[in-house]
Amino acid sequence: MKGSRARLALWVVLGIAVATLLVVATRSGPATARSRADSIDQRLKCPICGGESVADSNSDVSRSIRALVLQEVRAGKSDDEIIAAIQRSYPDSSLLPAASGLGLVAWGLPVVAFVLAVAGLGAAYARNRRDPRRVASPDDEALVAEARSDG
Amino acid sequence: MTRVRWVVTCVAVVVIGLVIVLAASLGRSHDTSGGALVKHPAPAFSLPALGGGKVDLQADAGKVVIINYWNDWCIPCQQELGDLQRLWSTYRTDPLVAYVGIVHDVHAQRDITDYVQTEQITFPVAFDPGERTALAYGVTGQPETFVIDKHGVVRNWISGPIDLAKLESLIEAYKASA
């Protein structure tokens, strides 16, 4: 009983530590125009280079889009306004998960697999807790004794 | 149902679902560039012209406008140059048709003049500083040609060299339409 309480306390402390680290790591100061533009570039797909983001691509069109995004950020437009304007000309330029079709499968499948895996682990853990600890039968003990005497 | 049979059924359902989704996605067209503008109003522009002045789309309101994105180092652009020059010769005096060749290269402004003179290009040439107009039109390369009707709506997007006869028939059709 004392051991299980200590273990629980350990898990609580560990959880708090992880949560604190996550909060500290994800907290950032006010975004500069450049960092905002970079973050928008990461969300846009290069129109001519399958799957690469505008931020990572060296194509002419991506370089032009990067310059345009920075100008628009400096002009005070919101992220959504800038992305919407680019998507009017390049409709498939979003790297965010698509709400249907292949995009849904590509983004949704890992999430479903993760949830199923966690649920499976949870179920296995619960079952192990429910089942009584197995006790060796006389036959098992005889088998072990025989093996020991052989050695 | 045994556990194994249940698992096999689940896997089969997932696989069949994936195949259906993949098949549906393959059948869809992925129009990632200028084609998105077809049937939409043409983005306005006012661009510096070679030799001075401006090329303004609004000044050509009520006309069928041909916009061609090109540059001097692009081989397909060089291949269609003769046809574009012939197109310009046909329509240069037509009050219902306007044409502009927009240089699709941020660095081209300094040396395109020599090329235009050497190739005896007489159609209007404009520059697109920062490629803002090209981005508004969803241009991804060159040559790309847009046909805008008299109401300012993009009717056709042609990626690659033009077919002169086809383009002329489109122009005539849009001229004749109400």
What this model shows, in words?
The complex is a heterodimer of chains A (151) and B (178). Chain A has 151 residues and is mainly alpha-helical. Chain A has three domains: 1-30; 31-96, Cytochrome C biogenesis protein (Helicase, Ruva Protein, domain 3, Orthogonal Bundle); 101-150. Chain A has six helices and no strands. Chain A is elongated, with a radius of gyration of 28 Å. Chain A starts with a helix and ends with a helix. The mean pLDDT of chain A is 84. Chain B is 37% helix and 19% strand. The termini of chain B are far apart. In chain B, strand 3 (64-70), helix 2 and strand 4 form a beta-alpha-beta unit. Chain B is an alpha/beta fold. The longest helix of chain B is centred in the N-terminal third of the chain and has 24 residues, at 3-26. Chain B folds into two domains: 1-30; 34-176, Glutaredoxin. In chain B, 33% of the residues are buried. In chain B, strands 5-4-3-6-7 form a five-stranded mixed sheet, covered by helices on one side.
